[in-house]
Amino acid sequence: MTLSIPELPLLHLSDDEMALVQVLRADMMRDRWALQLRDAYFNGEQLVRDLGISIPPQLKGLHTVIGWPRVGVESLEERLDLEAFRWADGRDSSELSEIAEANDLFDESSMAHLDALVYGREYLAVGSGVDDSPPLITAESPLDMTLMWDARLRMGTAALRECAADTFIESGPEERMLVLYLPDQTVMCLPSDRGGWEVIDRDEHNLGVVPVVRMANRQRTADRVGKSEITPEVMSITDAACRRLMGMEVAAEFFGAPQRYILGASESAFQDADGTAKSAWETYIGRVLALERDEDGAVPTVGQFAAHDPTGMTKIIDLYARIMSSQFGLPPHMLGYTTDNPASADAIRSTEAKLVKRSERRIRRFGRSWQDAMRLALWVRDGEPPDKARRIETVWRNPATPTVAAQADATVKLVQAGIIPADSDVTLEMAGLSEGQRQQVRADRQRARGTAVLDRLAALGQADDATRSPEVVDGDVSLG
Fold it and tell me: Which of 20, 46, 397, 410 pairs with 70 at a CA distance of 20 to 30 A?
């Protein structure tokens, strides 16, 4: 008689898993400094390198900030508004809306897009929900997560997340935890007292794919990881503008009050009545300078040097603003550069063409990531991959800024030409209505159809009653 011993999940990482963790952690730590540098420029916390020429030692602690990186990145992110998920074949998409609402994706998407633009990438992790709740979709920062990517298969082969231990896990203060994502399982680990990592949970989902999607920005064939919008050019111009601002602050300290000179004055002119020498500040702020003639009867000469003119530095900063606007594709007025003749509304919209095109490219790239994450969520929920013939679409708000009248006019012309039907959802979308407004219009249409049907049935009933003839049956009058 043979006994079969059930196979128990490993309580420690295998040699292959441990080697994989080391490779992924090294990859994450290698890029962390560069990511934190971009984050510092975005938050205005970068340290501007002093050239050691024009800044005196007393003003070494002076810190000037110019928020152009934040303005440029946020101007692009503000045009990326995810509104809804739907099936491309027009079927009911309530199951997609349920998953999105349960994970608050329409608010979380804004933060995910912002991180992807600042860091160059963001990660969407998919996991099982608690009890009967929908699957979890979370946006993870590249400061805490990395993904091993297979360029040939265009999919991830392993992912690692290192973060603070969750509150429901009994752990010490500031304790870190690892989450290793594999194609067949997700492994959670805590530091072991004996060194290394101790496995506390293994979620064997057996999906066959890593439940992590990378949302990359500015990809290239040789660089699938993505690049930040805060490029070396942006950082260089930001540093130069900050140094100009610092130079203006230094000039204000030295030349804020005009320098004066006195020629031919005696020493007594700078002394009090008791012979004590006046301080330099008392001498400078004296409103009236009473100076005596010298032995030859000549009056001392009093004059003033020309005050510092900051116009030269402000022109340089305006030049930097125009260069920065070309880097971000922004109208110059968004960076504070103005002229005596303001641009017209049409001219402003024409200068936004590059920004609109950049937004459309990000929508195309980021939309694919959200679709893949939603498809993984359905896979986790149902235990089998969704039908590939059914494609998921993401609905975005128009990144351009057309007027309401222009949108309505274009939509009416398309309906009148018979290109799109008047009661189509595409018509409502082209008219500029948000997803919530479109849902309200659809509900109003259904109520209107129901009311019309009831009115028609009531009218038919009245017509039928009018055609009947009265009969007398046992003394009662009735309609025959």
Answer: 397
